[in-house]
Amino acid sequence: MIRPKRKEQGSALIAALCLIFMAGMLTASVLALSRIATFDVRAHIELQRSAYINEGVANRIQFLLAADRNVNPSSTRCWRD
């Protein structure tokens, strides 16, 4: 039976620990990137929601102005002389 030299006894352990550390770092970086992507998606969703709300408000204002013009056709100006 051949016995390994004294200097080579911990080399496999060091390689295994390095591999585990690198896998952990890779997992942590993927997790961090997914968190950042989630915040980006959430910001985009809020922006789209805001655009839809603003569009609805603009349509409602146009409807109310048109309805007011139908009820009061003489008051089409914003100010009076």
Overview of this structure, please?
By secondary structure, the chain is mainly α. It has a domain at 41-69. Helix content is 75%, strand content 0%. It is built from one helix and no strands.
Short key terms for the protein model shown above:
single chain, 81 residues, mainly alpha, 1 helix, 75% helix
Summary, kept brief:
With 81 residues, the protein is mainly alpha-helical. It has a domain at 41-69.
User: How do the SSEs run, as a string of H and E?
Assistant: H
| Low-confidence parts | none
Broad shape: rod-shaped
Structure classification: mainly alpha
Tally of contiguous helical segments: 1
Distance between the termini: 113 Å
Radius of gyration: 34 Å
**Biggest β-sheet description:** none
Strand content: under 5%
The overall pLDDT, averaged over residues, is: 84
The helical percent reads over 70%
Q: Got a strand count? A: 0
Describe the protein's topology.
Elements: H1 11-71
